[in-house]
C-alpha cells in the first residue's frame, strides 16, 4: 500500500494552487480569468507583480521538492509515486475541477528532490532557454526533456521512466503553446497575451 500512500501524499501536496491563492490574497483577482487562465507563475506575472510570480514559482517548486523529500524519508520504496503524484496534483487539482498548472516548476522541485544534479541540469536549461528566447513554454518544455537526458547521462537511470512520463505529460499540456510556437504567435515573457 505504500505506493498508494505516496501517490496520495504527492497529489494532495501538488494540488495546493499557490498561484491562485497568492493572487487572491494580494487583491489581484482570479488569475484563471486573465491571460492563459493558468495558475502557474507565468500567468501570475501577467498580473503585473514580479514578486507574486516569483513567490508562486518558488512555492510550486517547493511543493515538488517536499513531496519527494517526504517520500524518501517515510516511503522510500515509493518515491516515484510521490513524484508523479505531486505533478499530477498540480496539473489536475481536485479543488479546481482538475484544471491546474502545466507542471514545469513543480517538476523542477521533483528533479531536485530525486537528485540535485538532475535538478541543476533542469534549472540551467530552463533559465538559459528563458533568457535566450524569453518564451516560457519553450523553456519549460526544454527543461523537462533535459531532466530525462540528465538522468540518463548522470547515471540516475532508475528515474528515466518517471521523468520521461512527466515530460510527456508536461509537453501534452503545452500542446496549445506548441501550435502557437509553430505559428510564430507564442507570447514572450513580459508581453500581454
Walkthrough of the structure:
The longest helix has 25 residues, at 50-74. The protein has one domain (2-183). The chain has helices at 2-14, 18-25, 41-45, 50-74, 79-91, 104-114, 116-133, 136-153, 160-173, 175-183. Helix 4 (50-74) runs parallel beside helix 6. With 193 residues, it is mostly helical. The mean pLDDT is 93.
Annotation keywords:
10 helices, globular, 69% helix, 193 residues, 0% strand, mainly alpha
In short:
The chain is mainly alpha-helical and 193 residues long.
Strand and helix map with partners:
Layout: H1 2-14, H2 18-25, H3 41-45, H4 50-74, H5 79-91, H6 104-114, H7 116-133, H8 136-153, H9 160-173, H10 175-183
Helix pairs in contact: 1-4, 1-5, 2-4, 4-5, 4-6, 5-6, 6-7, 6-8, 7-8, 8-9
The string of secondary-structure elements, in order, is: HHHHHHHHHH
Biggest sheet layout = none
User: Which geometry do the CA atoms define?
Assistant: globular
Number of domains: 1
Structural class: mainly alpha
Instruction: Work out the radius of gyration.
Output: 16 Å
Q: Output the number of helix runs.
A: 10
Uncertain residue ranges: none
Beta fraction of the residues? Answer: under 5%
Q: Indicate the mean pLDDT.
A: 93
N→C terminal distance:
45 Å
Number of strands: 0
Helix content: 55-70%
Amino acid at each position: 500500500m505504500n505506493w498508494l500512500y505516496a501517490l496520495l501524499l504527492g497529489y494532495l501536496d501538488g494540488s495546493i494552487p499557490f498561484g491562485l491563492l497568492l493572487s487572491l490574497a494580494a487583491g489581484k483577482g482570479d488569475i484563471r480569468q486573465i491571460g492563459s487562465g493558468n495558475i502557474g507563475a507565468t500567468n501570475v506575472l501577467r498580473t503585473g507583480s514580479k514578486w507574486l510570480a516569483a513567490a508562486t514559482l518558488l512555492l510550486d517548486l517547493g511543493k515538488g521538492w517536499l513531496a519527494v523529500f517526504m517520500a524518501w524519508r517515510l516511503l522510500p520504496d515509493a518515491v516515484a509515486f510521490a513524484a508523479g503524484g505531486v505533478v499530477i496534483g498540480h496539473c489536475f487539482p481536485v479543488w479546481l475541477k482538475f484544471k491546474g498548472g502545466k507542471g514545469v516548476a513543480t517538476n523542477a522541485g521533483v528533479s531536485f528532490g530525486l537528485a540535485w544534479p538532475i535538478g541543476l541540469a533542469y534549472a540551467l536549461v530552463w533559465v538559459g532557454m528563458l533568457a535566450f528566447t524569453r518564451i516560457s513554454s519553450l523553456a519549460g518544455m526544454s527543461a523537462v526533456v533535459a531532466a530525462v537526458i540528465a538522468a540518463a547521462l548522470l547515471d540516475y537511470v532508475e528515474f528515466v521512466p518517471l521523468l520521461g512520463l512527466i515530460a510527456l505529460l508536461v509537453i501534452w499540456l503545452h500542446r496549445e503553446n506548441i501550435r502557437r510556437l509553430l505559428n510564430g504567435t507564442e507570447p514572450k515573457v513580459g508581453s500581454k497575451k
